[in-house]
């Protein structure tokens, strides 16, 4: 049976490199994974006062989508050596109310994508730190820091062969990680 994987893309930009890489991972994923990008751009900012009778509907929909997943894969850009505000908000929405986190025990992975040379290394590790606290076992190897993202696609949007090979190996390793944690 296929495992459901939620993908959270930490960039809202229309031509986001992170979204492009997330879509490539969906395309390259083995049949053992059913992957879907869960939109986070319309989540109201987390405010504990809104829990209960006034819980915003987008929070409930988001929580249900991720809760129903076997794993979560994060595609993150780097903003000021950390993750974007929209991704942090989604993590906060999912971790509340206290004691009802949607994250605990999910098979996790992080891929960071940047047009710069460091491949969003800082964001990758900042996100890993939060996931440790939220009890999300994150795949350690292979690590994925995608640098110079603006050079990876040709004029028709086709990913170059070398990066496609890496992403295929990465998503296959993640499938094994999900399988190992599911048994």
What would your notes on this structure say?
With about 180 residues, the chain is an alpha/beta fold. The protein has a single domain, classed as Flavodoxin domain (Rossmann fold), CATH 3.40.50. The chain contains five helices and five strands, in the order E-H-E-H-E-H-E-H-E-H. Strands 2-1-3-4-5 form a five-stranded parallel beta sheet, sandwiched between helices. It starts with a strand and ends with a helix.
Please give a quick description of this structure.
This protein is of the alpha/beta class.
CATH class: Alpha Beta
CATH fold description: Rossmann fold
The CATH superfamily label reads: Flavodoxin domain
Instruction: Report the count of strand segments.
Output: 5
